[in-house]
Amino acid sequence: xxxxxxxxxxxxxxxxxxxxxxxxxxxxxxxxxxxxxxxxxxxxxxxxxxxxxxxxxxxxxxxxxxxxxxxxxxxxxxxxxxxxxxxxxxxxxxxxxxxxxxxxxxxxxxxxxxxxxxxxxx
Amino acid sequence: xxxxxxxxxxxxxxxxxxxxxxxxxxxxxxxxxxxxxxxxxxxxxxxxxxxxxxxxxxxxxxxxxxxxxxxxxxxxxxxxxxxxxxxxxxxxxxxxxxxxxxxxxxxxxxxxxxxxxxxxxxxxxxxxxxxxxxxxxxxxxxxxxxxxxxxxxxxxxxxxxxxxxxxxxxxxxxxxxxxxxxxxxxxxxxxxxxxxxxxxxxxxxxxxxxxxxxxxxxxxxxxxxxxxxxxxxxxxxxxxxxxxxxxxxxxxxxxxxxxxx
Amino acid sequence: xxxxxxxxxxxxxxxxxxxxxxxxxxxxxxxxxxxxxxxxxxxxxxxxxxxxxxxxxxxxxxxxxxxxxxxxxxxxxxxxxxxxxxxxxxxxxxxxxxxxxxxxxxxxxxxxxxxxxxxxxxxxxxxxxxxxxxxxxxxxxxxxxxxxxxxxxxxxxxxxxxxxxxxxxxxxxxxxxxxxxxxxxxxxxxxxxxxxxxxxxxxxxxxxxxxxxxxxxxxxxxxxxxxxxxxxxxxxxxxxxxxxxxxxxxxxxxxxxxxxxxxxxxxxxxxxxxxxxxxxxxxxxxxxxxxxxxxxxxxxxxxxxxxxx
Lengths: 122, 261, 309
Known about the structure:
The structure holds 3 protein chains of 3 kinds.
Chain A: H1 14-19, E1 33-39, E2 46-53, H2 57-68, E3 76-81
Chain B: H1 3-28, H2 37-63, H3 69-75, H4 85-88, H5 94-115, H6 121-150, H7 153-171, H8 180-185, H9 192-209, E1 216-219, E2 222-225, H10 240-255
Antiparallel strand pairs in B: 1-2
Chain C: H1 3-15, H2 28-53, H3 62-87, H4 93-101, H5 118-139, H6 145-173, H7 177-196, H8 209-213, H9 221-238, E1 249-251, E2 256-258, H10 264-274, H11 278-291, H12 293-308
Antiparallel strand pairs in C: 1-2
């Protein structure tokens, strides 16, 4: 009986072996990066979970769907070109820190004055 | 359901289950070897979807008194399989696999959309789940086929070549099977000819809009294929491609028949 | 600030268990050490997909087949995340992939061994992933933000990998004699690559106290190996598997395992490209890459066409 043998992984790879040691062509694709934001449920915020490489935003969306939402609930996906993200510098981290007491603008920090007594209206 | 309706339904379910199982297998051959990391991941997800559909359909058959899904999928001989020849063809290059996916998923969507109206509730429910998963497949496949049909001269040639080769086989997805008329009369399943017509009317203009030549022509509102469909699969007549698949999936079981896996 | 002051600030941050983020000042040795480590990790995932991917067509049931496809898919996904983490340090994904395909990069030695039988899938899923988890849970504590964030997602997914491997081993060991023999034979072959998984003994390693101080390397090779042995040897013995090292012993007093060293010459030979599967692994990846070139070029051309239209 003819033995049908198959495996795509062991397909004759002489071609592949012959390529080893040779140089790769100069340019292969290095596509832009797109940051991926997942909204897990309606009402929630979109959270950054990683990035994909894709030639444009439309493709980035369909690729991000499987790269990042296989195990995470998702109702909506955003992608943003990484280059369009403006960010502060970590060197300037200090701008976010208060050196003076700002508790006055917190619910617990703002202190109530003595309650006012109601007076009789004559 | 009458006994003949049940028999006809099982015939159909075997065809659909085997289609999903075999194409899922072919798709999974790309896992780890795709052209782009993220696309590899997406294609693997779709492979798992098709496998899941197969499992759902085999489970339905099991509920109706047939063997367990694993037995049905992993132990039957080639002539018991009822998949179309289209899905058993070896994976070819990425153009071939993508084009096959577009043509197949298009048929799958039409078919299961119609089956959501089946008078057999378990099938209608399963069909609804399948239709939902197929939405992403359609978005993915149309995007990729369109872009590759237009991208470079090489990609256009490859996609065209894949389409020309696959078209007659994809018509085989609608090979007539015994009992279809009973199922139609009982509102259990749609008519294969109607499905084929809907599929042609949807796919032909779409592929032409991508700049591809389709071996079909339009008369009035309807498209007709200009090539003969490749039949045989629905009657258990398969090619060496299916033998290759079964050799692989049955290797372990044949080596140790008493074992459970 | 002087270089010294910058270094002190950088090291103080790490001592406080704060993360270093992209854009922070960092010493070149830190940057380059991380690029090497993360890219090697990424390559290991992508190459690691191959021994198991080989068996997808042969998986004998729905449960095994779907779990295996998902696992191999995850490995490609991990590669994706790790390449991304390395890119934040100033190297492109294309450059890293080129290094791998031209044989200039190394990856985990363990994947240069063949997956000869179905039982190898069970053993790899259980013990190789198990060893990886021992390593990866430490990397969560690493100082570089993008790497430790990637590790969070990876560790989350690895739990499933271990489980499907362990389940497969349980099933096979509880099966026919042929199945049990297959597992034993597989395990015997994989024992030595597993013992080499964490790298040479500390005393023979190119020591980098910097990388430890900078929390790039969290635990030493020996420490990781000890943890692996403590976690897995009892379970291996519980299965009744014979361990091919008669001198493997746990000492209650020192709480340490002693064992026969694997062949470290073999380790070095394999990592330099002369293992049983090095050429085949790279050959398959190189071929897949070449076969996919037209796809990448076409997708890029399509977008550029749209831009110039």
